[in-house]
Amino acid sequence: MNTIEVHDLHMTFGGRETAVKALDGVDLEVARGSFTVLAGRSGSGKTTLLNCIGALLTPTRGDIRIDGHDFTHLNRDQRAAFRLRHMGFVFQAYNLMEILDARENVSYTLQLRGEPRKRALERADHWLAEVGLAGLGRRRPSQLSGGQQQRVAVARALATEPAIVLADEPTANLDSATARALVELLGRLNAHLGVTILVSSHDPEVIAGAGRVVAMADGRITP
Fold it and tell me: Which one of 84, 105, 153, 216 is at 20 to 30 Å from 141 when CA atoms are compared?
């Protein structure tokens, strides 16, 4: 069964005189429990497609269905609520809150979902340990390396135990050893927990670790 279905998706940025077509009629199906990579050069449209699937962007035209639900035509609040309940997102730039320490960053989404603070922090500690950061929960982002910050972002995405994890170039700012460890972690989560993972990347490590690679160029899926 497909958990993500994209049909004839178009995304155009700018006005009539400066229009840039980032997506040009994309069709994509992602099976439940799969580990899929959107691969392509910078500017191929893979990040835009990921952001549309994650409801961070509203496409110009086309449809997206998540677990059979018409995701595209939900209003802003409905999309945010759906994302909070069903998705985890790992951003290339981490998007951690500097005023919060690592465990508070991880627990933040859990508390938005109504989890009591004590329980949310306990779950944050668990997921920080899962990504190899046990004992570093009290450090703020500025006190962590880039690789450690990315692992905090992964822990935050996983803490809600989402059905789908979307990751935008998750290894772009990591050294090769840290990148390899992150890919192995995503692979274990996919294999053992059945999490559907969709990643945008041009990193050979990520591509090699995926079960399926979808190539993109010029806003289209290519053979």
Answer: 84
Confidence category of residue 1, pLDDT binned at 50, 70, 90? low
The pLDDT tens digits for 87-134 are 888 887 788 999 999 999 999 989 988 899 999 999 999 999 988 899
pLDDT bin (cut points 50, 70, 90) of residue 2 is low
Q: Is residue 73 part of a domain?
A: yes
Residue range(s) defining the domain that contains residue 180: 2-98+150-222
Helices (H), 131-196: 146-159, 176-193
Q: What's the one-letter identity of residue 109?
A: T
What is the arrangement of strands in the sheet containing 61-66, beginning at the earlier edge strand? 20-31, 2-13, 61-66, 69-70
Closest CA to 140 of 91, 94, 105: 105
CB 94 within 8 A of CB 149: yes
Place of tokens 């700018």: 14
Q: Which CATH number is 45's domain given?
A: 3.40.50.300
37 residue type, one letter: V
201 SS3 class = strand
In the chain, the number of structural domains is 1
